[in-house]
Amino acid sequence: MTGDKLISETKGLLVEALESLSDQLRTEALTHVSYANEHEGKVPSNERLEFLGDAVVSLAVASYIFKKHPEAPEGELTRMRARFVSGPHLAAIALQAGLGDLLLLGRGEEMTGGRKRPRNLAGAFEAVIGAYFLQHGWSRARELLEKTVLTGELPETLQDPKTALQELVQKRPGATLEYRVVNMEGPDHMPTFTTAVFIDGKEVSRAAGSSKKESEENAAREALARYRAGDAG
Description:
By secondary structure, the chain is mainly alpha-helical. Helices cover 60% and strands 11% of the residues. The chain contains 12 helices and 3 strands, in the order αααααααααααβββα.
């Protein structure tokens, strides 16, 4: 299955999962703590659902790899599970599915690129799984995870997005990679940086962050997603 088809199918599955939830569970799963705090606790954050979803994801992955690798020792199973349930892996799935666009964020979190922050994305994914488990039970939650988190091969060794992007670009002799801060706004104590990624002089992505480093990482992550979907390079 091609990368763009896999991304499309994953997005479709998660959109269907969200639509199947009650209004209350859907709203809670997508409510970041910053939004809940700004509304003085009138809207619950997704932290409790994230806690539950984390356990559901871990159990589904452990069960899957235990059955698929009957000869693997405990240590190898542990390493495989860690790679499947890692924050970057879950955040990448959530980003591809567009969960970041659906999050309810507080003003500060919105201004500092919270919709693409890996921690928020991974947390949102786990919260959606927690809500789905409550709505539909273990069997359907496990099936959803096997079609999203557990598709394809074991995730690649985890790297920071800038390193991963550099390695991809270097596969083409003579290719160049550059990061440029294209905007900085906000008060001195809470600035927002926007960085663009240029490959061979052509802009392929841009993203914001609360620091130059974070904006570069977010922009690199966006460029990686496009590369893997076949839209860059």
